[in-house]
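Hey, can you fold this one?
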Amino acid sequence: MSLYISNMEIMVEIAVIENLLVDFVLLYFACKTIKQRIKTWRILVASIIGAAFAIALPLFSFNDAADFLIKLFIGAFMCYIVVNNNFVRFGLCYLLFTIYTFAFGGAVFAFGSIWVLPLMGIIFIILVSFLNLRHSVGQNMRDCVIYYGGNKFKILSFADTGNRLIDPRSRAPVCIISLSLFLKMFPDVKVENLIMNRLGDEGIEDGHYINFATVADSSQKMFVFAPNKLQIDGKVISDVRLGVATKKISSIIKYDAILNGGII
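Sure. Predicted structure:
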């Protein structure tokens, strides 16, 4: 009998830890998604309450509808503890927490409860790493306007201090733009000619190819041209060239240009 009670105590402790960890991570996910300022102690308090209710509810007899409503109320109460300074943010947090809960429940159903702790740990590490990287990239975003031929193109750009590419002909710093932006600026240009290094000046101001080095290949060419000017966060830059990237330049945050470190 004592062995049975001991085993039951261990199982309850494991269940409490699992529920606490799951609630903590899901609340953290929800807060990060809405960019809510995170107070760890609030998430911990809410997670403890959630874990306590998760252990206590099976001790009572409720019909399915009542059980479902109680769980929804508990989830709302947990989110209110974490986000109680703005009704809209609270609503978004609660909605995301509910969605993530159902998604996680599906994962547990698919893989089995034995994977709860390692699965949540892996997801937590991946999310935190991604959000930290996204935040780091986001800090280097700049609003940019490209002026060319009487037109202006408003884009989001990435300030890269590592980009020190110089046009050998003009000695001007080179900013790199996406292929999609280039085709928007020059819709009549055939993309195959650009990629195969067969593009002439095509009436494009100071259009020509330059060699540039990469880690994998030092023999690549890039088409560059001269805009009328750039405006970066209000700062006007005239002596600059734009190089066209034929491969995707952004992944974490969508942007259309990589600024040269010499003009930042």
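Residues 181 and 187 are 10 Å apart (CA to CA). Let me know if you want another pass with a different chain boundary.
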